[in-house]
Design goal:
Blueprint lengths: L1 H14 L15 H5 L5 H10 L2 E5 L5 E5 L2 H9 L8 H11 L8 H11 L5 H5 L2 H16 L8 E5 H18 L12 H5 L3 H5 L4 H10 L4 H7 L5 H29 L8 H10 L9 H31 L2 H20 L14 H13 L6 E4 L4 E10 L5 E7 L4 E4 L1 H4 L3 H4 L42 H18 E4 L6 E6 L1 E6 L10 E6 L3
Parallel strand pairs: 2-7
Antiparallel strand pairs: 1-2, 3-11, 4-7, 5-6, 8-11, 9-10
Helix pairs in contact: 8-9, 8-21, 9-16, 14-15, 14-16, 16-18, 16-21
The protein binds protoporphyrin IX containing FE.
Length: 524
């Protein structure tokens, strides 16, 4: 305890000169305003007031650092050995996804990444294009079934549909295993992912305090959390057991294909299993690690893409003119494919749709699925800043000292709204910023795609971002080709945080994930 108190005061002193909002509560600090209610409202106000790096009070007076500065983010995310995940967050990753790449740190993470990275290469994913296409079409066709004869429009919550479609794509493209969840609810593994994060990541004052207490617990005690008899933990345990069973079957099947000398299938997992078999015994992943990649890919790949596509539909539903323009681009792309003698689009057609791509980039900027990621300083560091900040004492500084044990909140949502990078309209959803003629500041580029922090950056940046982009684009193409979307009268949607940002209908006491949209059929 005395060591904790010593480090706590040491850390408090070094961060004392960084500005930030006053804490109104010793118990909650600023965390209720930061992470509860409509996500982002307060955080963006604070960023405007205090700059791209500011200090936040967590529970019991613990200070955290919120970082949206490009250079500082590059430094923190580019040096995972200096800024690993905190032990309690690593444990949460284990509870959710097992001992896969998301959980692994240091040389173990490098080992996982080396085996897995080639399976997510653009050339590999191109071969999987038909899986993306078929599922996106099935999604549109199932939604079409909601229209009974003569009905001009229907109001439908699009969340379950996008989640099922995202799961089905993971099934076929990532595992070569159809879940068919768009067709029926019979698959138990698929069912266990339904609302998994929204239901298990409780969003309330208690979760803030519990999260703060966890960091003072030894890992052995943290492990007991997994055994808690709560509804949320039971849901997570069931999900993990079912996914593990599936993972074992899948991996065994893929190993048999290899042993039988047959050509390996194209799906991501087959490629991973294949790559792992050919690895040096020192760098191979263990069977448990390979199984854990199944739950990791399921969770990391399903919730994120589904929510991103849901937010894109929300933005398009508010802008019928933009929707028509995108629909026209889709129609032209299909017409060009037919004109060259193809019956269908091919993967390279996706690269020639500037308007659709602009909608995707702007959605990823404006609604990052994971708005922040937490790291813990392993040692004292001096971190450079792209934009200087003014300290409490009035000094203007272009580097900051981050003491060991500080929790750093890598604020991707904040970076994606920086006026210095995105212009004075950074807080507006405006796809024209992606037009070629409008120059976006790239003083210090960040991220894996379009200078966005949405997929983060560095050695732990999203391994599946290319997969996500193809999937997202195919959803937009097939849905906009078939439907016009609008916001039903009297509905206001707000954004809440349940590890990922989810839509919630304002005033809904259940605060469940919902996005009711009005759909009408596009005339042929
Ligand atoms: C719009 C969709 C997506 C977004 C916004 C997104 C975002 C992210 C972010 C921010 C991280 C880093 C998280 C952290 O370190 O705290 C990450 C990691 C990861 N993502 Fe994605 N992701 C998306 C889609 C996907 C897809 C489709 C897959 C797989 C099919 C995937 C697989 C992964 C994996 C395995 C990691 C862990 C990488 C590592 O630790 O080395 N993601 N993603």
């Amino acid at each position: 305890l005395s060591t904790s108190v010593f480090f706590y005061y040491q850390k408090s002193n070094s961060l004392a000169n960084i500005r930030g909002p006053l804490s109104t509560s010793w118990l909650y600090g600023n965390m209720r305003e930061f992470s509860l209610g409509e996500y982002g409202v307060r955080a963006f106000q604070w960023q405007k007031l205090y700059g791209t790096v500011y200090k936040l009070m967590n529970c019991f007076g613990e200070r955290r650092l919120v970082v949206a500065d490009q250079k500082a983010l590059q430094f923190v995310l580019g040096n995972p050995q200096l800024f690993p995940r905190a032990p309690e967050h690593k444990e949460l990753a284990r509870i959710l996804m097992g001992q896969g790449i998301f959980w692994a740190e240091g040389p173990d993470h490098k080992r996982h990444r080396t085996v897995m990275q080639p399976s997510f290469a653009a050339s590999q994913l191109k071969a999987l294009f038909p899986c993306f296409q078929e599922t996106a079409r099935m999604l549109a066709s199932q939604l079409q079934n909601k229209f009974s004869t003569n009905e001009e429009n229907v109001v439908e919550d699009v969340c379950p549909w996008l989640h099922k479609a995202a799961l089905d794509i993971i099934g076929t493209a990532a595992f070569g295993h159809p879940f068919n969840s768009l067709l029926s609810d019979e698959n138990a593994v698929a069912r266990s992912y339904h609302n998994l994060l929204a239901d298990s990541m409780t969003r309330g004052p208690l979760s803030i305090v519990v999260d703060a207490i966890l960091q003072y617990m030894p890992v052995t005690l943290l492990r007991l959390f997994d055994k808690l008899p709560t509804k949320a933990m039971r849901k997570l345990r069931t999900n993990r057991a079912l996914t593990l069973g599936l993972a074992k079957d899948l991996v065994e099947r893929k190993l048999e294909v290899l042993k039988g000398g047959m050509e390996s299938e194209k799906d991501v997992l087959s490629q991973i299993v294949h790559a792992n078999v050919s690895q040096d015994p020192q760098t191979k992943m263990t069977p448990v690690e390979v199984y854990s990649q199944v739950s990791t890919i399921m969770l990391a790949g399903e919730e994120t893409v589904a929510n991103t596509a849901i937010w894109a539909l929300y933005e398009l539903a508010q802008d019928p003119e933009l929707q028509d323009k995108v629909r026209e681009e889709i129609r032209e792309t299909y017409a060009a494919a037919h004109a060259r003698g193809d019956t269908d689009l091919c993967a390279t057609d996706l690269d020639n749709m500037p308007l659709t791509t602009a909608v995707m980039k702007e959605t990823l900027r404006f609604h990052p699925a994971l708005p922040m990621s937490l790291r813990k300083a392993a040692e004292d560091s001096i971190v450079p800043l792209a934009q200087s900040i003014t300290t409490v004492s009035g000094e203007v500084v272009n580097e900051i000292s981050i003491p060991a044990d500080t929790i750093v909140i890598a604020n991707s949502a904040g970076y994606n709204r920086l006026e210095s990078v995105w212009g004075p309209d950074a807080h507006l959803f405006n796809i024209s910023r992606w037009a070629k003629e409008r120059k976006i500041s790239h003083d210090a580029t960040l991220g894996m795609y379009a200078n966005l922090a949405t997929f983060l950056s560095g050695p732990r940046g999203c391994i599946g971002y290319r997969f996500a982009l193809i999937e997202f684009q195919m959803f937009l193409i097939e849905l906009l080709k078939t439907f016009r979307f609008s916001i039903p009268p009297g509905i206001r949607i707000k954004r809440e945080l349940a590890l990922v940002t989810i839509p919630v209908v304002d005033g809904d006491p259940t605060r469940s994930q919902r996005m009711p949209l009005q759909l009408s059929l596009v005339e042929e």
